[in-house]
Each structure stands twice: as structure tokens, then as C-alpha cells.
Task: structure prediction
Amino acid sequence: MTITITAFERSPDGGKGLARDTRVRWALEEMGQPYEVRFLSSAGMAAPEHLAIHPFGQIPTYEDGSLSLFETGSIVFHLAERHAGLLPTERDARARAITWMFAALNTVEPPVFELTNARVFEADKPWSEARLPLVKDRVRARLDRLSAHLGVADWLDGAFSAGDLLMVSVLLRLRMSGILDEYQDLAAYVARGEARPAYARAFAAQFAVNAPSL
Amino acid sequence: MTITITAFERSPDGGKGLARDTRVRWALEEMGQPYEVRFLSSAGMAAPEHLAIHPFGQIPTYEDGSLSLFETGSIVFHLAERHAGLLPTERDARARAITWMFAALNTVEPPVFELTNARVFEADKPWSEARLPLVKDRVRARLDRLSAHLGVADWLDGAFSAGDLLMVSVLLRLRMSGILDEYQDLAAYVARGEARPAYARAFAAQFAVNAPSL
Result:
């Protein structure tokens, strides 16, 4: 059965790997699963046939025979359940790795995403400059704790897992703001993720589509 | 084995059921699982022994023998995997229910939570009034799509699932803002969730701790 995902025809970040299809590509590469990509324009994302598989009109989606899914966390989890390499098999360790998936998406990503909103989509608002320190401090409140937890470990809980895949992907969104560099341990953690061959392949694949032509 | 969760000693909402322990209590009640609650003060949430089981110093947590978990989504999923009633058994339907869990927490909750930030924690800021319409429109962008997906169905995908449990819990946070009432179908969806006997038991249990004494 062919796996098909969707991605932006032109990613808003111009190929920096921050669009969420990179997360799914990374998971597929960790497992050595081949996949195809259907590219969508803004109009395509709002079209009824796309809304039928992604009610919120976003990317990525995942199609595999009779099954179609949306939500990056759900797609990564679905893959991790079916192929070795992204979730431990021992019961408690598996539950803790899944906990880190949710922590990346529901505890760390919301303030990170809000910082992007503040820096990019509210940059022209009269409150932009005055409000930014407050938004950054909400991110730091999470990173302080994450850094304390990580300590000198390579990954969040034992071996690399789907929890690390999502957490590294979320933290990558902070690089442009400079905040990641305030935490040397977290910057090194992100670098360990980027150094994985599967990440490099995922990044290269999305970059090939989105890089500005020379 | 006794299940123990943590909750606020005094919930910031004064018993309206919006603290996240209500979500875990609801899941436990749907399954008829007894549980105990350890109540935490602000100081208790920042104490080393709590940070050892919740790196971000929040509630709820979940302890069951050798296993301790944090993140509401992860705890609800852990319970749903082990007891009947919150996840379908058929493969594709199960994956779609899990998708709705992630959609509730990573697509719908972030703008909902940001509205609480704007209404409560930035209420005294000079930009508060001018910025609020933009924050509300981000919530509406999600609710428009959610409403279109729900249509005339009772639940998001077939029978009631952990996806509905989390989505109803997230939407409940909108009631005070008045936005939920703009969507009659979603308000009715939330009311269907609240009408479940398991929700009523979970709400009553947290209310008993947090209601103002007369």
C-alpha cells in the first residue's frame, strides 16, 4: 500500500523545515518507509476534497489504503505503533514516550507558536514591541523546566523516541527568535536531532521543493 | 493497584471544572475506575518531589504502581488503551479517534488557551481591548471548521470517544467568553458531553473540593 502525505506547494518558511510535513517525513525516514507527496496550494487546502480528509484545511495529511488521518501527532503515533524505532516496547517506557509526544504538542508548542504569531502576524500591530517580552517569558517558563528535566541526558527518556522527534521539531521553531541559544543544553539537544540521518533526509526532501531557485 | 491523580488544592476557576484534572476524572468515571486524589498547593507543585513526576510543575499527574505519567492527553490515552469505552477497537476508527485527541489538544486548544491568556492574564495591559478581536477570530477560525465537520452528528466520528472527551473539555473553556454560544451546534455538542453521567460525577467530585463555602 502506498503512503501519501500532503505538503505545501510552497512552504511559508521557504524550506527551513518548519512546516509540519517535515515531522511526518522524519518519522517515515526513521522507519525506512517510502512515501509519496501531494502538494497543495492555498486554494487546494480550502477545497472540499481536502477538507474531507483534513477538517481544519491544513497540512500534512496521511493516506494509506482505507485510512486517512490528519494531525501530525496522530500520524507520527500511527506510524510509531506499526514500525519499530520510535516507541519502546516495554509498557511503562512506551507510556512515558507517548507522554512526551503530548508534552511537545500541548505544553511546549502552544507558547512557541504564540511567539511566531507575535513576531510575524502581529509585527505591524501597535502593541507588538511592548507585548513581545511577555510572550517570550512564557516560552522561557517552559524551556527552563525542559532544560532542568533533560539535564545531561541525550534524549528526554532513555532512547530517542517519537517524543524527541516532536519536541525537537517544536524547538526548531524557536531558532529564528534567538531564544533557543539562551539554552545551550536544549540547542545541543536540537542539534542531536538534526544530526540523525533520517532528519537530514526529511529536511533535504522538503528543501528540494521549497528552496528559492538560484 | 490504586490509581492516584493530582489536582489543585484550590482550583483557579473555583470549581467550574476547567482545571485539567476534570478531564482525567471524566475518563476514569467513563471506565468505572476508582481513584484517589492528592491535592497540591502552589508550593507543592513547585516542590522537587512533584517536579520528579511532572517536569513542568503542573497538574494532573497519574500514578499506578511503577508508572507515573503527566500530560492529560497521555493519561487519557493510557486509560483508553486499557479499558473499554473510549477508543473503538477497529483499526481505522481507533486511529481516527486518536486523531481527534490530538486535534483537540494541538489545533483547537492553543487558540482557546490564548483567549484565556488575553482575557485574564493580559486584561490589565494597554493593548488588551484592541487585541481581543484578533484573538477571538483565531478561535472562530477553528470553530467554523469544527462546526462544519460535526454537521448533524452527535460526536466527531461515530460513537463517543476519548477524542470527544478532550474536545468537549477544550470547548468548555470558551463558555465564559460567550463565543461558544455563537455556534449552536457546538454548544449542543458540549451539552451532550456534560449530560453524560460520567462527566456529571467527575464535575461533582472536583466541585466538592473547590466550591466556595457558603
User: Anything to note?
Assistant: The domain at 3-85+198-210 of chain A is CATH 3.40.30.10 (Glutaredoxin). The first strand of chain A starts at residue 3 and ends at 8. Residues 88 and 94 of chain A are 5 Å apart (CA to CA). DSSP finds nine helices and four strands in chain A.
